[in-house]
Structure formats: C-alpha cells, structure tokens
C-alpha cells in the first residue's frame, strides 16, 4: 500500500546543508557509473570532495 500524499511518515534525508535545485552533471569514462554506485555513500562523499576542490582553487588565487 503506497503512502498517501502529505504523509508525515517515511524516510527523510538528513544532510549537513540543503541541496541546490540545479543538477551538476559530467560525462565520466566508460564503467565509471557502475563502479561509483558500488561505493557506499558516494553522493555525499563526492559533494565533500567538490567542496575540497573548490577550497583548494580559492587558496591558489
């Protein structure tokens, strides 16, 4: 039986910060998608790496 619209029950994501409504996308090499999905918590880890990459760029300028 599916949840009714507006139901207060169910899983909710607990993120450190809210997500942007726009998607960041890039084309990886062959096989990257399947191998990436095999990594636990890969999306949050990728977000943290992007933050790290941006902060390194800001430090260099």
Question: Distance between termini?
Answer: 55 Å
Low-confidence stretches: none
Number of helices: 2
Radius of gyration: 16 Å
Global morphology: extended
Give the tally of β-strands.
Answer: 0
Provide the residue-averaged pLDDT.
87
- Counting helices, strands and paired strands, the structural category is mainly alpha
Mind describing the biggest β-sheet? none
- Which sequence of SSEs, written as H and E, runs from N to C? HH
Helix content: 40-55%
Per DSSP, what share of the residues sits in E-state strands of 2 or more residues? under 5%
Q: What does this molecule look like?
A:
This protein is mostly helical. 41% of the residues lie in helices and 0% in strands. It is built from two helices and no strands. The relative contact order is 0.08.
Can I get a quick summary?
The chain has 61 residues and is mainly α. It has helices at 32-37, 42-60. It contains two helices and no strands.
